[in-house]
Every structure is written in structure tokens, then in C-alpha cells.
Design a protein that fits this description.
The protein is of the alpha+beta class. It folds into three domains: 89 residues, Alpha-Beta Plaits; 83 residues, DHBP synthase (Alpha-Beta Complex); 33 residues, no CATH class. 26% of the residues lie in helices and 18% in strands. It has eight helices and ten strands. Strands 1, 2, 3, 4, 5 and 6 form a six-stranded mixed sheet that branches. A two-stranded antiparallel ribbon has the order 7-8. A two-stranded antiparallel ribbon has the order 9-10. The C terminus is likely disordered.
Length: 290
């Protein structure tokens, strides 16, 4: 402990702590406990230097596992006493790389209720934007190309954030604070439809592209839906001829395909789930994947 009654610690946290809002969480927690320091992603997790009154530090350390982000998982947390530095605030600093890489990355997470509400609001700038996301949801594993998990190490590196998205990304009070896939219709990926000869057929209208895709599915066609991390091959699951055609082309005669339903009631007509499995799904507020 320093002569001024200030203590300092280096804390190294491993587990699923990248791409789940962990650094913004630590930022807010440090500010709430009146602590200074900095945090960064590393090749093995998160590294944190923190200092302040000893009682505040103790409370901070207790709160990390108790209040951690919902999607995060802590596998190890090592705390080492350090000498205090001349710091006046808490910051998120540039990630550090290393030869040994062991950080765990969260799987992709379905759209959260907050993003879904924005996507359905005609007055919101993210209205009907299918790539909407925040620190609580969106793509993770399928877009990463290297660790640490930062935007330059993902397939989103080609999309420069517009001023509105940048403002969200840099605002500690915004749920998109350091959300690496953050994007909107102005600056992010766009929706368009190509035929099997790679000619665009939708007239640069995202709504028309999706309407045409739905029409093609109803006609028994196979639609390849490209996302940030790969392709989904889709057919009408109720059309046996379309399903058989997809099985032939995929050379997958027996193995089940994934099934998507608009609501739980229609899904339960085709898939058996016991009570515990239904409880795990929770309230269904959007498309359900099984």
C-alpha cells in the first residue's frame, strides 16, 4: 500500500471474457467503486490494473464474479499486489498480443430484447436492420479471425463505423460501448439478393430482397443466406421435394437439418422438448432456432 493509503493490484482474468461486454463492465464497476486504472484484452483473456482505497478494491474484487456480464464465464482470476501509479481515471487501453493464445470466445448470441425493440421501431435508425447487435447479443465466434477479440481481428474490420455508431461505441453508458460488431444501415453490411449466376435481382432494396427470398422458398427453391461468418442453406421444411433436393446436393441423405420456426408453438408441433428444455429457451420474442 502506498503512503497515501492507496493500494494497487494487477488482475488477470481468463475464461469467456472477450466479446461479452467484460471490459465495459469493469469500466463501470471501477467507476462505481471510485477506482482508477486500465483494462485491456490479451491473448489469454483480460488484464486489469486497478488502484484506490483498500476497502474499495476489496468490494470491487467481490463484485466481479457476482455482477459479471450474463454471457461471460470466469475460469480463473489471479490478483497480484502492485505499486500505485499516478492515475486519475479508468480507461480501456489497446489490446495486448502474445505468442501463446488461449482466450475463449463466446458463441454467436441471438438478438436481445433491446435490439429487437429497436429493430421493430420505425422511428429508430436501426429499423429493420438485420445485422443489429450490442454487447449482449450478435455475432462472436463466426466473425473472429484472430485473438484478442477486437474489431480489427474480425470480419467487421472492413466496415468503418459512422459517427452515430462511433458515438455509441465510445459511450461508457451505452450498451454498445466497445461492441465490436456495432453497425447500422449507414455503415454496416447490406442485404441484397443474387441469382445462381451472381446477378443482383432485387433492385438494391433490402425489403424486396427478403420478400423475394421468402417467395423463392415458397416455390421450393434453395436459398443460400450469407452472413458475416458463412452460409445457411435454407428450404421450406414442409416441402418434401425441396428437402430431398437439398439432401441430394449436400450428399446428406439421413442426418437431420437444423429447423427454424417463427414461434415456439409451431416448433413444438415438430420437435419434442421436455419441460427443462423449454425453460432453457425462455420467453420466445423472435425467431427460434433448434
Amino acid at each position: 500500500m502506498g503512503s497515501s493509503g492507496i493500494a494497487a493490484k494487477k488482475i488477470e482474468i481468463s475464461g469467456v471474457v472477450q466479446g461479452v461486454g467484460f471490459r465495459p463492465f469493469l469500466f463501470g464497476l471501477a467507476c462505481a467503486h471510485h477506482l482508477c486504472g486500465h483494462v485491456s484484452n490479451t491473448s489469454s483473456g483480460v488484464a486489469l490494473f486497478i488502484q484506490g482505497k483498500p476497502e474499495n478494491l476489496d468490494a470491487f474484487l467481490l463484485d466481479i464474479p457476482e455482477k459479471k456480464p450474463l454471457l461471460s464465464q470466469i475460469s480463473n482470476m489471479v490478483s497480484t499486489d502492485m505499486q500505485p501509479l499516478d492515475l486519475t481515471d479508468f480507461t480501456i487501453i489497446k489490446s495486448r498480443d502474445a505468442r501463446t493464445k488461449s482466450a475463449l470466445i463466446s458463441p454467436d448470441v441471438g438478438v436481445c430484447p433491446n435490439c429487437l425493440k429497436e429493430m421493430q421501431d420505425p422511428a429508430d435508425r436501426q429499423f429493420e436492420y438485420p445485422f443489429i447487435n450490442c454487447t449482449n447479443c450478435g455475432p462472436r465466434y463466426t466473425i473472429i479471425q484472430d485473438i484478442p477479440y477486437d474489431r480489427p481481428n474480425t470480419s467487421m474490420k472492413s466496415f468503418a463505423m459512422c459517427p452515430d455508431c462511433r458515438k455509441e461505441y465510445e459511450d461508457p453508458l451505452n450498451r454498445r460501448f466497445h461492441a465490436q460488431p456495432n453497425a447500422c444501415p449507414v455503415c454496416g453490411p447490406q442485404v441484397f439478393l443474387l441469382d445462381n449466376k451472381e446477378n443482383q435481382v432485387d433492385g438494391n432494396d433490402p425489403s424486396q430482397a427478403m420478400a423475394l427470398a421468402a417467395q423463392f422458398l415458397k416455390q421450393g427453391k434453395i436459398v443460400a443466406i450469407k452472413g458475416l461468418g458463412g452460409f445457411h442453406l435454407a428450404v421450406d421444411a414442409a416441402n418434401a421435394t425441396a428437402v430431398d433436393l437439398l439432401r441430394q446436393r449436400k450428399k446428406r441423405p439421413h442426418k437431420p437439418f437444423a429447423l427454424m420456426a417463427a414461434r415456439d408453438s409451431s416448433l413444438f408441433n415438430h420437435v419434442y422438448l421436455d419441460r427443462d428444455e423449454k425453460d432453457c429457451l425462455g420467453p420466445i420474442t423472435g425467431p427460434l432456432y433448434c
